Amino acid sequence: MDPLPSRNSRLPLRRADFATVPEILDYAAQGQTGISFYSAKGDLLTALAWREVRERAHVTARKLIGAGFAAGERLLITADTWPGFFDAFFGAQYAGLVPVPVSIPVGIGGKDAYLDQLRRQLVASGAVAAVGIDDLAGFLADAASDLPAVRLHGGKGVLDALPEKAVDLRPLGPADLCYIQFSSGSTRHPHGVQIMQRALMANLAGMTGPAGLDVIPGDRTASWLPLYHDMGLIGFLMAPLSCQLSIDYLTPRDFARRPMQWLNIISRNRGTISYSPSFGYDLSTRRGATQVPADLDLSSWRRAGIGGDMIRPEVLDRFADAFAPSGFDRKAFIPSYGMAEVCLAITFSPKGAGVRTDVVDRVALGKDQAAVPAADPLDAQRARSFVLCGRVLPGHLLEVRGPDGTPLADRQVGRIFIKGPSVMPGYFGEQEASREVLSDDGWLDTGDLGYWLADEIVVTGRAKDLIIINGRNVWPQDIEWAIEARRVVKSGDAAAFSVDTGAGERVVVAVLARVSGPEAGAALAREVAGAVREAIAVDCDVALVPPTTGLPMTSSGKLSRARTKANYLAGLYTSPVSPLKPVAA
Amino acid sequence: MSDLGTGEPLLRTAQLIVENDDVANTLELPRLTSRVDVIREICRHLAPYQAGERPIVGETIIAKDLTIDSLAIMDMVMELEDSFDVSIPMNVVAEIHTVDQLADTILDLRAKR
To answer: B106 CA to chain A: closest CA distance, Å?
Structure first.
């Protein structure tokens, strides 16, 4: 088997000027490019030209329509990186169904939490069918067992077994949904972002155009990003497809196991565009830098994007240092900022400029929400570096607003708002949650904090409670419920938040310590950390709060995680011995 | 942080086990790898994360009773998969809690090869 070509021999490159995903695939299918799946050992497992992807999708679509699924109904798909995902996802596009890609289980012992999450996603999306890899057929059956609305569930075989009928295709149109992206809301109350065909097209045009990645003929993409994440699905399926590019895939699991394979694939296939959150660059550097193959050649990589979590300049520096001898150009770095609510991209830093930082004074930042240039940028105690994330995509407006809603000037930290054609109409079936983030005049509250520097945005953190660990969104409620569900502490006795360690986010759980003595305190902390790790595969530090002090509440009597965090940072709570020993070297 | 470098001797150990067991196989012993081998290997990975004086036993719940973090757990599972040349399906991984369950899973998969 040979890798698919990077160029189409006759088909002219069209850069995301389409009206729908089915139209995008119809055009790409006229060329020779497509998707290739690689193993952890770097072997090419399967290659599907876009033409084959489309043919297989048509078959799936006729089966789905023939089985009686009505236009607009939802199809949940566990989004592992394998050909069956593409059959189901694009099959739905041609059958007029709305795909709902969801995650696969993480970590050991995570079954119960995963089933609970699946059930809630099935309910929140009103799914009528649920399919995935064969290994997950049993979990899908369990999750759907109390949900009569789910008429079909199982592994790949359940779709294959449907008879293919001679029916007309019902491709989704420009005014339709494209899919539902679960990336927002806690596990208990998942909010599915409505990715509309039209909004997606607007974002794809921006992303691939001159203000973004500026795709050219011959570009080739590589990705290990999960397809249940918007950066994986929109950034590294929709965007390359919308420009008829070839994509080389490695599963996220195989990337974690062999991060160097990511770079090997780019090297071997002369990849030009690939993205990762900071942690992926970090993992590659830590595990790969000591054993770089002599023939590794990263000189073709012209767009090395960073997004998905806070961008860590020092991590990127180390990566660039480690792989410069292999031809990596640090000017290829493109810091970017976005979220599912805008079909992915909001800003790109200028191409070819690499990572640029602004070094500000920590004290002024914390006290006055002002980004004042640091007097001594090398004073690690006072100085803090932030990465410039570039200008907002053409056709969109961005504002940084103060607490009273007025737009702020340069170097004043406030909440970031965006308006424009990529913005979602709301969360699926969640009017209240939608109203909380979307104003009547179309402004979306990103929940992120940042400031203007000339015409570029600098993201400094989050106003919302969301925690992002290694690119994975974790809602604090899920952590608190995991502890309460195991009856380690009473309901309302735990508050989870993350602190910025400078090297990443660290989860801290503050718990009311209704125990006495350091022994009991340490045991409680261990139990809390163990419960969180087992339920959601997240590591945390534990802070003990004396019951007499209590956890801070908002004026409406809700737990205030922001004030809990402030108290923690002010040293009001005690940390028993860290439940985690340093990782063995 | 464990890496591919430290994985090397492990692989060799596994090959030795296989070779020994090939001999054992000619004596018509049914299992290729003994349970003791697997448990020993798991405990070797987990030893640095023992919590206090509590010994690591078959009933030890890996994510809860030890001080191991989730990344190290994933690393351990991957290294065990490599050294015993098995692939544990994600649905099976999701149902493993204890050292015993992990060992039995590996043995089952080896028996099915």
So the answer is: 14
Q: For chain A, what is the domain count?
A: 2
Q: Where are the beta strands (DSSP E) in A31-141?
A: 34-38, 44-49, 74-78, 98-102, 127-131
- Domain with A431, as residue range(s), is 356-462
pLDDT score, position B68:
84
The rounded distance, in Å, linking the Cα atoms of A415 and A422 is 19
In one-letter notation, the amino acid at residue A312 is R
Q: Give residue A66's pLDDT.
A: 98
Residues on chain B touching A583 (C-beta within 8 angstroms): 1, 69, 71-72
Say whether B15 sits in a helix, a strand or coil. Answer: helix
More confident residue, B65 or B42: B42
Q: Is residue A85 part of a domain?
A: no
Is pLDDT above 60 for B1?
no
**Cβ atoms within 10 Å, residue A409:** 11
Contact (Cβ atoms closer than 8 angstroms) between residue A252 and residue A277: no
A375: domain CATH number is: 2.30.38.10
Lowest mean pLDDT among A46-60, A68-82, A298-312, A537-551: A537-551
Of B48, B63, B90, the CB nearest to A105: B90
Backbone angles phi, psi at A128, to 5 degrees: -105, -10
A531 and B CB contact within 8 Å: yes
Q: What residue spans define the domains of chain B?
A: 4-112
- Angle, in degrees to the nearest 10, between helices B4-26 and B35-46: 170
As a whole number, mean pLDDT of residues A16-31 equals 98
Q: Which residues of A touch B92 (CB under 8 A)?
A: 135
Secondary structure of residue A114 in the 3-state scheme = helix
Residue numbers in A near B64 (CB within 8 A): 527, 530-531, 533-534
Mind listing the pLDDT tens digit for each residue in A28-72?
Answer: 999 999 999 999 999 999 999 999 999 999 999 999 999 999 999
- Residue B22: predicted pLDDT: 41
| Highest mean pLDDT out of A115-124, A468-477, A568-577 | A115-124
Is residue A166 within 8 angstroms of chain B, CB to CB? no
Nearest CA in chain A to B47: A584
Contact between A313 and A281 under an 8 Å Cβ cutoff? The reply is no
Say if B47 is an interface residue toward chain A (CB within 8 Å): no
Does the structure show a pLDDT above 70 at B19?
no
Domain assignment of residue A520, yes or no: yes
Q: Are residues A450 and A537 in the same domain?
A: no
**A293 is a domain residue:** no
pLDDT band at B17 (very low <50, low <70, confident <90, very high): very low
Same domain, A517 and A557: yes
Q: What is the pLDDT of residue A164?
A: 97
> What is the structure's pLDDT at A184?
67
**Is the pLDDT at A73 greater than 50, yes or no?**
yes
Given CB atoms, is A490 within the 8 Å cutoff of chain B? no
Q: Which CATH architecture has domain B4-112?
A: Orthogonal Bundle (1.10)
A-chain residues within 8 Å CB-CB of B3? 286-287, 290
A514-520: long-range contacts, CB 8 A cutoff, minimum separation 24: A514/A489, A514/A547, A518/A576
* Residue A521 placed within a domain: yes
